[in-house]
Amino acid sequence: MNRKVAIIASNGGMFDAYKVFNLATAAAATDAEVGIFFTFEGLNLIHKDLHKQLPLPEGKEAMAEGFKQANVPSIGELLGMAQELGVRIIACQMTMDVMGLTAEDFVNGIEVGGAAAFLDFAFDADVTLTF
């Protein structure tokens, strides 16, 4: 049975990125069809430069070393894995317009679409998550 997972990423911190990409890659690895809609600060997670310097929550800065010691992939590596696994990466057109961003501001391979484009994907999703 082919399952569908729809994820909305609207927050832009490092923990948010790990939640989004860990779940997306795990779902895609089980042959689920996965789509992620990035909106508002969530666009940071796929921005060419910003995804490399996402903030940790205040008081959790020491966890950066823990990520390294546990050999946790970087956000860039997880994003690449998601793309290799066929995860649809959809950037919110409205948010991009409001923030003055274009597709060139983001990593290669993203789609740009409105809420209706994501909803078309999400209407028959088996699992819907938001972060």
Note down, in words, how this protein is organized:
- This protein is an alpha/beta fold and 131 residues long.
- The protein has five helices and five strands.
- The chain has a five-stranded parallel β-sheet with strand order 4-3-2-1-5, sandwiched between helices.
- Helix 1 packs parallel to helix 3.
- The longest helix has 16 residues.
- The chain is globular, with a radius of gyration of 14 Å.
- The model has no long low-confidence stretch (mean pLDDT 94).
Major sheet: size, sense and barrel closure? 5 strands, parallel
* Low-pLDDT residue spans: none
Strand content: 15-25%
Strand order of the biggest β-sheet: 4-3-2-1-5
Structural class: alpha/beta
Would you list the SSEs in sequence order as H and E? Answer: EHEHHEHEHE
List the keywords.
alpha/beta; five-stranded parallel β-sheet
Quick synopsis:
This protein has 131 residues and is an alpha/beta fold. 37% of the residues lie in helices and 18% in strands. The chain contains 5 helices and 5 strands; from the N terminus they run E-H-E-H-H-E-H-E-H-E.
Secondary-structure topology with pairs:
Blueprint lengths: L3 E6 L4 H16 L3 E6 L24 H7 L5 H10 L3 E5 H7 L11 E3 L1 H8 L4 E4 L1
Helix pairs in contact: 1-3
